[in-house]
Specification:
alpha+beta, FAD/NAD(P)-binding domain, 3 domains, seven-stranded mixed beta sheet, six-stranded mixed beta sheet
């Protein structure tokens, strides 16, 4: 049986990312794609940060980066700045950067030298040119740098609702994706359990050969209709609630080119600056903090200046589906699962999953068993690796000031794989071979910035090769820093120029 009609149930960022990935891969094959979303269900709309791989996806779609920046209130993201993730009594200047530049641009010896001699300095400052650029609020490129190219590595912050609209317009105009407003209340399946029709609230039966479930936390098709189970991870990852606000800002004020993630006694706060507002979210464990306490702490973080703004409460069900591909239905986005947005995980996982599906999409129903098992294994691996990476931020912290931080240090709540890695890295520094899978979305560079940013260093230090080589790498780095400081514009200055002139095409 040929697959000719594909439905994507649910809009938002995940739905429209899937529409663009599939549209790009399938629109010339005669496969019709229809995105169906409810006019009555608002999108979550708080996923406002990405990782650098989003640049590759947008470029592949044929998007204009200049138009994207103008239409989606985009700012550049070069790092996540982690504040107060360590014990304040032990660490005076308590922050570190998880940068988007490779830590070995100037050579591996700087990392080795930092372990041996440089730990009085922050790791990111020691090995990278980007940390200083972030602290000086410089842009990652100039107005003469072509679209999607960077002098420093970067991703984006954006208005999530505007981004969904932007992707919607692109998918419809470039890939002929159809857009339908309807409430899907039921499905019809055949004797083999494959979906044949989606049933609307008006009892219309819409025939489709394949269904992508982008319905959000409810997983309305995969979980509610096809009864695929859920693996709960809330015992390992304790934060389960978020309060979110949009805070107006002065349009003349400088814009940090990074996400700020500030830890508190029972979780952390995200702070993302767009051109005219900040998106702020207070992530916490309801087991360790009441909602009333959380709201008070959120307003205290904002200096009690915006107490008139009412924060929206979002319960977070942490875990993943047993499988994300069942019969002729694949879940993408929050319908797959959820982990707190500490490393821009939601959009990363949706983008990865949609791209992977588009690369090997079945053209006949009979092909599904040949690829569904591998897809499920790959996506499950990515989710479990993501859970480990997020958990690591908590379990290696030396904070002891609350029950939340003490419970996070309990190794019985850590996966066997992460436990094994941490034990090895306590003795031997991480190496490339520790991340052997092509599906390690967080790899050596990410782990180095977080591990060494949080002072999780190795006792078995390999001495650097030669003093002359280290000095050569340090000199090259310092020369590059001085050049960038003189050449790169301030972040807001570049955004204003892009708004006025646009960036050069490749």
């Amino acid at each position: 049986m040929m697959i000719k009609k594909v439905a994507i149930v649910g809009g938002g960022t995940a739905g429209w990312l899937a529409a663009n990935h599939l549209g790009h891969a399938l629109h010339e094959q005669g496969i019709a794609i229809t995105l169906i979303e409810s006019a009555n269900i608002p999108t979550i709309g708080v996923g406002e940060g990405t990782v650098p791989s989003m640049r590759q996806s947008l470029a592949k779609f044929g998007v204009s980066e200049s138009e994207f920046i103008k239409e989606c209130d985009v700012t550049f993201k070069q790092s996540i700045k982690f504040v107060n993730w360590l014990d304040k009594h032990t660490h005076g200047d308590n922050f570190y950067h998880h940068l988007f530049d490779h830590p070995h641009l100037f050579g591996d010896e700087l990392s080795a030298d930092w372990l041996a001699n440089g730990q009085a300095t922050r790791y990111a400052d020691y090995v990278s040119k980007q940390a200083l650029c972030c602290e000086r609020q410089l842009a990652p490129k100039t107005i003469a740098t072509p679209e999607f190219a960077g002098i420093n590595g970067y991703a984006y912050h954006f208005d999530a609702k505007k981004f969904a609209i932007f992707l919607s317009k692109h998918a419809q105009q470039q890939f002929a994706v159809k857009h339908l407003y309807a409430d899907i209340n039921d499905v019809v399946t055949d004797e083999a359990g494959y979906i044949t029709h989606l049933v609307t609230a008006n009892n219309d039966q819409l025939a489709f050969d394949f269904v992508i479930d982008c319905s959000g936390f409810s997983a309305a098709i995969l979980a509610q209709k096809l009864h695929v189970g859920f693996i709960d991870r809330s015992e390992q990852l304790l934060t389960d609630t978020a309060l979110t606000l949009q805070v107006p800002t002065d349009e003349l004020q400088e814009i940090p080119p990074y996400t700020i993630a500030t830890a508190h006694q029972a979780g952390w706060i995200w702070d993302i600056a767009l051109t005219s507002r900040r998106g702020v979210g207070f992530v916490y464990s309801s087991k360790h903090l009441s909602e009333q306490q959380a709201r008070a702490k959120l307003h205290r973080y904002l200096g009690d200046q915006f107490t008139h703004l009412k924060a929206r409460k979002i319960p977070m069900k942490v875990g993943r589906r047993d499988k994300v591909w069942h019969k002729n239905c694949v879940a993408i986005g929050l319908s797959q699962g959820f982990v707190e947005p500490l490393e821009a995980t939601a959009i990363l996982l949706a983008d990865f999953s949609a791209n992977l599906l588009a690369k090997r999409f079945p053209t006949q129903r009979e092909q599904i068993p040949l690829i569904a098992t591998d897809y499920n294994q790959h996506v499950a691996y990515v989710w479990d690796q993501t859970f480990d990476f997020i958990k690591m931020h908590y379990c290696i912290s030396d904070r002891k000031d609350s029950a939340f931080w003490l419970e996070n240090r309990d190794l019985s709540l850590v996966s066997e794989k992460l436990k094994s890695n941490l034990a090895r890295w306590q003795v031997f520094p991480p190496i490339r071979e520790d991340f052997a899978s092509k599906f390690d979305l967080f790899d050596l560079e990410n782990y180095l910035y977080v591990l060494y940013g949080m002072r999780y260093t190795s006792t078995s230090v390999i001495p650097p090769a030669t003093t002359s080589e280290i000095k050569k790498q340090q000199a090259f780095q310092q020369s590059r820093i001085e050049q960038l400081v003189s050449e790169l514009p301030k972040h807001r200055e570049l955004l204003n120029k892009i708004s006025q002139y646009g960036l050069q095409k490749h």
